[in-house]
Amino acid sequence: MDGVFWAADGKSLFVSGYKEREPVVLHVDMQGNVRLLWEVKGGAGTYAVPSPDGRHLAMQRMIVDGNLWMMESF
Question: Which of 8, 55, 65, 69 has a CA between 20 and 30 Å from the CA of residue 37?
């Protein structure tokens, strides 16, 4: 699990973690019901932070993208 943030109303959580090695953001209510909000295919991680008024959810994804460059005669 990467992060847990309370929803603005205090009645649920936004949880960042992994499902089958893929980063996900989940919404979990106090009855234990889980809803998948976002899955980052091929990502390295993610998290979500709710706004204080509960109207928005700021989400970030981390992706590992490798590039290889070769420079000659510089």
Answer: 65
